[in-house]
Structures are given as C-alpha cells and as structure tokens.
Design goal:
With 133 residues, the chain is mainly α. Helices cover 80% and strands 0% of the residues.
Length: 133
Amino acid sequence: MFFGLFHLHRIWALADRESYASFWMGIMNNKGIAYFGIMGILAALCVLGIVTFIKNRKSNYWWRWIYIFGGSYVLFDLFAIATNMKLWSNLLELMFDTNSPCWNIVWSFFIVLGGCVFVLGINLFGRIKIKEN
C-alpha cells in the first residue's frame, strides 16, 4: 500500500509540471535531510519487503513477487541516484523535462502502477481483516 501511495503522489506531476519537476530535481540534486529521509524510508520498506519474500519463500503468493521486482528496482534507483550514475542521471533529466511530449505518458504510467498496487494492498488488507474475524 505504501508503494502505491508513494506513486499516487505523482498526480501532482500532471497537475503542475514545473513545481513537481523542480521539487524532485531539487531533492535529488541537493541531497539534504529531505533526500536522506525519503530515500531511507523507501530503502527500508524495500528491504523489509525482500526479507518478507525470502522468509516466506515456501508459501509466497503471486503478488509477493512485487516485493522482489519492485523492491530491487527501487533499491537500484536509489543507488543510481545516490552515486550520480551518469546513465541514470540522464534518464532522470529526460523524465523531468517538463517540455517533453512524453511527460503525461511517463507520469500516468507511474500513477496507474501506484493505483494498482494500492488497490491490491487494500484488497489484501481487507482479506486479512476478514480472516481475523
């Protein structure tokens, strides 16, 4: 659910390109307390997801593969940003180019991805609550 919520904030990218791009590029370029706070929380959630997958490897449901693939991608993304990997920096500059004709496609993809993961999380949480009762 948290991964989904994080991606749903990208609705802001469709509402106001300039402020969205300015905010995130500022966070990534300055690497201040907000950067380390956000990245630390994301990294911790990814590591917890991967550990959960590994601990339950004999009884994993299909949706837990999201922990491995999503978590690994986000950890790589965080690593690439932290180390200023040239290829990744170029990709981020393209993604945050507010004049790009692909802007709405890129950010809509992340919003749809976040929405699907959030709905899956709500659904699974509901199933857990029903089992408890």
